[in-house]
Fold this protein.
Amino acid sequence: MIRDLILGILILLAVFFFVRRDTPERGPMTEKYNRLIHEKSPYLQQHKDNPVHWYAWGEEAFDAAKKENKPIFLSIGYSTCHWCHVMEHESFEKTEVAGVLNENYIPIKVDREERPDVDEIYMSAVHAMGLRGGWPLSVFLTPDLKPFYGGTYWPKEYFIAILNRLAQLWREQPDKVFESGEQVAEFVKAQKTAATEIGTLSEEVFSKFYHHSAISFDSRWGGFGAAPKFPHAMQLSMLLRIHRRTQDPMALEMVVFTLDKMARGGMYDHLGGGFARYSTDERWLVPHFEKMLYDNALLTRTYLEAFQATGNEVLAEIAHEILDYVLRDMTHPEGGFYSAEDADSEGEEGKFYVWKEEELKRALSPEEFGRFAQVYGVTSEGNFEHGTNILSLQESAAWTAKKDPLLQSAREKLFKLREKRIHPHKDDKILTSWNGLMISAMALGYQVLGDSRYLEAAKKAARFLEKNLWKDRSLLARYRDGEGRFNAYLDDYAYLIQGLIDLYESDFDPKFLEWAIELQNRQGELFWDSKQGGFFFTDGRDSALLVRTKEGMDGAIPNGNAVSALNLLRLYGLAFEDRYKEGATKIFRAFSKTVADYPHAFAQMLIAYDYFTDSSKEIALIPSSQDEEEKLFLKNFRKKFSPNRALALATPGKDFPKLAEKKPLVNDKTTFYVCEDQTCRKPTNDREEALREVLGFKAYKLSE
């Protein structure tokens, strides 16, 4: 039935381009207007002046669809989405399109970053129909929210044809449409709620992950697979862990080579710092220019971990530049981090970032231009549209060339000149989940790089979230323009807990760990699947959602169940509560069969499993007021790649956390307790001895 309906639509669409149809009869009219004017979302605000009578997702729209007996046209996107802009300009701003939409449909606009739950369900539905999904996501629903047709961007004439054909089907064969919608909805429900198939995980899964990475690795340009190329931060971080425990040189080479190539290319902003979303080509030269907060948070962590593993200062410099970009351009005055910057400015993708040769010659001295053009590959023909140049560090140039005084002065001049251009749109909403990722990145940046600005930024962001998005023991997902809204999702809890644990291990303020534990307990109450283990993505309170999903696979961001498994293991090491380790074990068990079969799709889960299978350490520092040995220990320890550990510092007058509780000083000197699975070795005053114990690991061999 579903395929028959879709095939009929596709066949008849061709006719619409050649045969003019009469305007459908008008149904009963009610007062209509574009309701997005009342919304805070930057994406919805971009559409508030459209002639389309948009609704936001909610009961008002659902009631209207039922009352007027009209299907719903659901459009999902986000404010920095290039093709969303194109479809708006080509279709949603046009009265001829709006006329068809308003007459025959209840049009609903959704910001996928505010409602990832809605986006996930209807993207899955489009894929279930065998159709191409993407953003903007365009889905047609029955009034009871069952999807019966969909796709992504459509050119205006094709879109009008689809609208007219589906309106005709709705008038003439509503039973057929309802039946198809029911079938798609039932398929998605069955797919998303399938019983978990329990399997067995072992360290063999790391070998499978490694070999898949090696096969797909691009030895010429770095990265994995063909264009378009994405950064795959979690995959790179997992390879670092494989190298640590196997000493396999190829695992490290894949990471360092890829990180170098990505940062040399045009995907990296060589004037302002920070990475674009992905590269459209295999060489990392031509990016999709939008900058996402989550990419830069995840890549910061990967570059810092690679620096810890190699001591390569270039990797540390790149992490510095990413974090400085976020502090400069992506931080709310009160502390939260903004979501994204657009690819477009003045209606053109990448215009803010590219340069014509003559512009550079006017801005720089002849000596500066000559050196700059040589190092960054500037030519009169350009390497991008309209004879413009995307800056990329040439293979012949070492990273140290950037310290050349001529290049430094040239970069300063060009950055100031670029600041005078019309900037890309900034999505200034503050998402709890992505802020959690950046709090974690800032905290790790402080630990590894020693820059206190990053610690202060992480603390300020955490306080911002607590003030604005933590209400009555429940977390909210989004803040903008004075409004906190939307019940938080699994990712909001998981990422924020991770950030708070990293923040605690930065300056050992117990209030951050106390909040992390409170959030973890609340997450368990709202999201835990008591039947099969693991966490649902939503709290189950929204009856409009077709299904309550539970996933373990990574997307562009790490999976919430996988992050939670690692959080639980770290909290177990700090709080010594068995229920945390038991919860992590149940998550591994719930997804074990799928992880074992497709490990390359579960990098974050394997990062957690690496912690679980390693001889993970718990370190308690009991400081003495007589010396500063703990500071020297931390300085040396934080330069090393030792990801599988929990770290606590005893706080005078406070028996918290359990790891540091009631452990005495030895010889009235700073004392180090190194523990494993809650069993502590003999305490020592020797920080070098403690460091050697902490850096130990459980090795394994990669299978052939």
